[in-house]
Amino acid sequence: MLEFRLVQGSLLKKVMEAIKDLVTDANFECSSTGFSLQAMDSSHVALVALLLRSEGFEHYRCDRNLSMGMNLNNMSKMLKCAGNDDIITIKADDGGDIVTFMFESPSQDKISDFEMKLMDISSEQLGIPESEYQSIVRMPAAEFQRICKDLSSIGDTVIISVTKEGVKFSTRGDIGSANIVCRQNTSVDKPEEATVIEMKEPVSLTFALRYMNSFTKATPLSNSVSLSMSSDLPLVVEYKIADMGYLRFYLAPKIEDEEEQS
Amino acid sequence: MLEFRLVQGSLLKKVMEAIKDLVTDANFECSSTGFSLQAMDSSHVALVALLLRSEGFEHYRCDRNLSMGMNLNNMSKMLKCAGNDDIITIKADDGGDIVTFMFESPSQDKISDFEMKLMDISSEQLGIPESEYQSIVRMPAAEFQRICKDLSSIGDTVIISVTKEGVKFSTRGDIGSANIVCRQNTSVDKPEEATVIEMKEPVSLTFALRYMNSFTKATPLSNSVSLSMSSDLPLVVEYKIADMGYLRFYLAPKIEDEEEQS
DNA sequence: ACCAGAGCGA
DNA sequence: TCGCTCTGGT
């Protein structure tokens, strides 16, 4: 038996909005410590990792580890039926092949429950090592989203270069080229809006903007985003989920001079 | 060498939004006194004329006259990457075929530069004589926009008739007909919202609403618009750009009883 | 607080 | 491709 109650149900809605375009089916791994998901995107280029710790739930019960295979599009459809202020409860029986989503309106005047069939999904739960990164940039999530959107009107790939002074996003396309430089900037009133560069070594890596723009669908989850980069590791784009965990996206850099694959 | 710095960058963004649907390619003529553009729309029916005087820029340098041929759609894409509060600087070298747009965020924490290839565009720079008009109407730009939009849901052409009392906009279509009369009205608190008729002789002219609706894309540039009309001259629709110049649209009247051309 | 433009979903 | 919803600007 498994039962989670999440008062801030909109969190779950935002998480689904952020990943459902990238991943169609995935196993939710439930254990006593929390609720997690790992999945490659459909073209097997990017990896999505979600963690929601049990402490973030108002009520969390998980008698034994359970892997729930869900079609994320269908799950997303159901979560769209929850109001933004609704309390969401997720339930499943240990042996069953059904998950139940329950939505309670804040006033308790409307209680909905939705049942969804679970699926068998073969997935290798990859152990992702926590690595040291040559550079980590933290910046306002909205600004990162804007930069990725703007650059994709010019080109297909972005070169992210980190130096002590700041981070530079560059692209080039048929109509011209673009460089956007963000200075380190910690003096801002709100720490949420700071741009912080932790640089051990400068890096300069190239990524497909298409994936970046998918990742930034997670912008509503957090005020800030962090980009962790090393020359021989996948980029990690992380959105912290307040008091609960994170949503991370991993993307391998493009090898330079090989930008012709669509 | 040429370099303009425009603190109110949103002006340039609005200008581009206003003309890019009408004109695809145009030469920007730069001289020591300012920055201007003249171009026919793609169907060679309407003419767009822009003037931005050098005094309106915070910094303006133009060593020698330069004609920069730009694809306005591409330029517009780049300007969309500027924030509304950004300071925009435009730079070009005398011999080069490149123009650079630089955007500085108000906080100076984000600096972007975009490079665009210039094009060779053959254009006859027409000398447009300043004429005397039989009637000039000045009215709130938003009101004019609303009238053109409303009338185009009824008919394809508008008859603008000016008398001492006011200006009448009429149309007729399959579903019926419409007349909108605006009285002269200078008593309003804000002179911006006045409707002023300067009539030497009454006029009544017919225009294609399709073009009118394109022209009113310039509405965000100014609170008021002026319509200058004579029976044997093109209509001039002018939006003043505060302290800098104007954006004008010229459109020949339709000959009556010849409204079948789409 | 209202209106308009952009992005997303059907 | 059209309509709806959401976000941003006035």
TrEMBL record, chains A, B:
Domain Proliferating cell nuclear antigen PCNA N-terminal: 1-123
Keyword Ubl conjugation applies: no
Keyword Electron transport attached: no
Biological process according to GO: leading strand elongation; mismatch repair; regulation of DNA replication; translesion synthesis
Location in the cell: Nucleus
GO MF annotation, one: DNA polymerase processivity factor activity
GO cellular component, as recorded: PCNA complex
InterPro entries: DNA_clamp_sf, Pr_cel_nuc_antig, Pr_cel_nuc_antig_C, Pr_cel_nuc_antig_CS, Pr_cel_nuc_antig_N
UniProt keyword list: DNA replication, DNA-binding, Nucleus
Domain Proliferating cell nuclear antigen PCNA C-terminal: 127-254
General function of this protein: This protein is an auxiliary protein of DNA polymerase delta and is involved in the control of eukaryotic DNA replication by increasing the polymerase's processivity during elongation of the leading strand.
Family of the protein in this entry: Belongs to the PCNA family.
Name under which the protein is recorded: DNA sliding clamp PCNA
